[in-house]
Amino acid sequence: MVETPVPPTFTGNRGLMIEEPLIFEQGEAERCGVDLPDVPAHRERLGGLKRKGPIGLPGLAEPQVVRHYTRLSQKNYAIDMGLYPLGSCTMKHNPRLNEKMARLPGLADLHPMQPISTVQGALEIIDRVAHWLKTLTGMPAVAMSPAAGAHGELCGVMAIRAALDHRGEQRRRILVPESAHGTNPATAAACGFEVDSIPANDRGRVDLAAFDAKLGPDVAGIMITNPNTCGLFESDFARIAEDTHKVGGYVYADGANFNAIVGRVRPGDLGVDCMHINLHKTFSTPHGGGGPGSGPVVLSAALAPFAPLPYVVHGAKGFDLVEQDDGGQSFGRLKGFHGQMGMFIRALAYMMSHGADGLRQASGDAVLNANYLMAALSGDLSPAFEGPCMHEALFDDAFLKGTDVSTLDFAKAMIDEGFHPMTMYFPLVVHGALLMEPTETESKDSLDQFIGALQHLARRAKAGDTALFHEAPRLTPRRRLDETAAARRPVLRWRPPAPESQAAE
Amino acid sequence: MSALKYTKDHEWIRVEGDVGTVGITPYAQEQLGDVVFVELPEVGRKAEQGKEIAVVESVKAASEIFAPVSGEVVESNKALPEQPATVNSDPLGAGWFFKLRLTDKGQIDKLMDEAAYKTFCEGEH
Amino acid sequence: MRYLPLTEADRRSMLGRIGVPSVESLYRDVPEFARLSAPVDLPAHLGELEVEREIASLAAKNLGSAAVPSFLGAGAYRHHIPASVDHLIQRGEFLTSYTPYQPEITQGTLQYLFEFQTQVCLITGMEVANASMYDGATATAEAVMMANRVTRRRRAVISGNLHPHYREVIATHARFHGFEMAAGDPSPGKPEDLIPLIGAETSCVVVQNPDFFGHLQDHGALGEACRKAGALLIVAVTEPVSLGLVESPGAMGADIVTGEGQPIGNSLGFGGPYLGLFAAREKYVRQMPGRLVGETADVEGKRGWVLTLSTREQHIRREKATSNICTNSGLCTLAFTIHLTLLGEAGFTRLAALNHATAVGLAERLGKIPGCKVLNDSFFNEFTLQLPKPAAEVVERLAERRILAGVPVSRLHPKRPELANLLLVAASECTTERDIAALEAGLKDVLR
Fold first, then answer.
1. CA dist., res. C421 & res. C332, Å (int)
2. Which residues of C365-374 are buried (b: 16+ CB within 10 A; e: fewer)?
3. Interface mutation target, options B30, B31, B38, B60, chain A, most CBs of A under 10 Å
4. Which of A336, A395, C19, C397 is most buried, taking the most CB atoms under 10 A from its CB?
5. A329 and A449, same structural domain?
6. What ranges do the domains of chain C cover?
7. For residue range A381-434, what is the model confidence (pLDDT) as tens digits?
8. Range of the domain at B20
9. Which residues on A lie below 8 Å from C343 (Cβ)?
């Protein structure tokens, strides 16, 4: 049967893919999706500051609003839909039990400034999560307040600065491996440090000779990720930590990759002074399209005195919250109120569900899944390093040499196959990097399908089918978008069209 | 027209009298990708050789531009911020960034000429 | 274990494919001494039923503010959230999606963030807004650092009536980022004059409106003075519902507006996660921290959205980034924008008017209690009540009677004994006549 090409539709919709305008393009000022009582007569006490003009917000009724956001949701890829192999993001399943627990009355409706006597259960939850984190990492203390991973990094680096200030030392150099995530040098610079980059060796780990050469009495510390961003365990970590301590520096560990070792290795045993943990990675709190996160920081005995405010303590009268530093050395407050309580509840539900045995199994399965990908794909793709990886597998673009298909093109073709691409062009130490982290919540069937798709694409690229890649994606709600135009002439908000406007900008 | 000289950071400079015109090389604009934004120094600003003097941004990267020689900024390419794409289309001509009055002409001689720069770029691959 | 799909047979097959005998052998790069041979000393796994039971028992140890008369504010406010909001944010395509770095498959997230950015501009009266930050306090600290960059100066003037948490977060950054701050003293219920504190080295002046004590002030003159001195005016808004009734900071001449978005769409949640609002004048956009969504078109000419101006951010600029921030508040931001979309112009302005009317009625009644005095001439939905004895004990006694009377100022200003008798009292559309009567009677009783 000869079919005709797909004609354009009247609506612009394509089956279940529905075009949805902005709320501003479908609102009417007097429409409303909420019924509120009449405003009783009252004496106005606004100090003459009542708003004079309209705000310009669009009004929609509830059915329109529900439809609007439902249609938007259908344009998003999500873990609930399929494999999300983003390296160092740990896109594991987000259990719904966690959502239910966070919404319990007596938790969701607690005001942060209620009297302490009325929130003992909440403080106990924070204390329990703290206990799990300290036990899993082998560290004596933890700062719970940082709002996200990058915020946790800030906390760790500030603690190091505070400790040095307390010793009366002016050290300003922080060592950071070249493979580090961009937040590491940004954080160090934000705290007044100078970043000194350490190259990687040809095995993807920190080059020890370079590290030794850069050590000195002016080194404040090192910011190191373990397993590192190449997905490899830094086997010399303990030695690096010890040498850093010998010159009087501190060891900050980026815990983004903790999922590889949780329940099997304790960073405290390796000489870490502070490590941030991403609850939204290792502990399954949802990524929510970009946030919110939570980045508690475990601390060694050397840095614990400098922990930020506030923190939970337990005494004869029950739990208490220390919000003021009376004669102590806390470096201060990092955010409003107490921390990402909603994420603590979710993480606690996750931790209790897995238990010590389940967490150990999870990290093992995460590493197994990544090595399975590495083994199955090393024929068609080009692994960046030899030997087993941890929870993520790193490839470079050598397998695409001579094909005129870039890593970016390869990723766009994966989208048409129904996958979110893996992390690309990171870490910078590998050319055209492809970094994939399947996590432990992927079944073998899911991995096999993914492997099959990537093998298929690699073979198409080598066979010279460049159009497949250059024109991808073709099956998505939008095809490749013009990021250059977006940056050259930024349009960052909707504006009402001018009354006598001509065609296009 | 006098010959172009090049720096290791992929800037070029063309000197006429005691004023040098500065831009970035075709190789640099290709590495950056589509240029979306430039930040130019104000007239009168003192430039020190090797220190940051301007910024060029593309969608995927932001790069400092370092002064190839020391001097004082006498002119900035006013048309460039409105049309940053010129850096990509005509990096050696209309895509110039600023002009400097040189304080030490000797610094020019130590920069790379075209042949040396070509070799340098090949080595970077 | 219910979240782990691999079976023993799967593992054996996969280990065979990899060519290693066991999962443990994949950890061969971990030094022997660091490898734990047994699970850590924590409880074993539990089913959903047991987890629910345990966490519910912890919840039961708390006094939930929704269950009792509650008048708490001080930077976090209880409003009624329509049922659709929580349903929509729990759709898996929102809940379990990632940052929209691949725009072709995240147009849902990008479009709602573009709408959010626009809504924030409209309510604050500003030209450009980012896609949210962690919370109001960190957003305000980021605003100060942005003002330092824009003006190339390093001295911030901070209102004495700024929320203490906000001031403390700025102080932390001042210490580590190397800038100075001059903070005024609190002046409950009285207008503040910060103009004399502005100098040639001032990068910004930070005020809050309504301020920490609930007072509303016109900052037009302050904005003018800042402009003359080359400094930026930063206005923090801890209760954005006020923007439905009160003149916007943009109209007053603010250069940067920050705020706490929690009151719209997000439950109190014991303090987090919340979301920071951040808006500024367009000419400063390249110095703005945080994510920005911009409009563009795809190769077929269809309108779409992308993250843009990313070169300001840490993953590209690294040491030179405008901030080290990585996340925005994602789902909290979605909840904010859905709630505000449901409210619309008519609903948002009416909600604000209801809040004010309720607070006015409450203030009138509490002000008549012997020994009590309302310090504010003006307020939106929160005011400062002066009691005849320390507010902290009064609040504790009323909590025992299951009334959450308000926030004692001493909780946030513990080193100022002259403020110890002050109580911050907030009302909202959730406050009922019975709640007010209970508070009135309780206070009279405790203060006798």
1. 35
2. ebeebeebeb
3. B60
4. A336
5. no
6. 65-80+344-446, 83-338
7. 999 999 899 999 999 999 999 999 999 999 999 999 999 999 998 888 889 999
8. 4-114
9. 32-34, 57
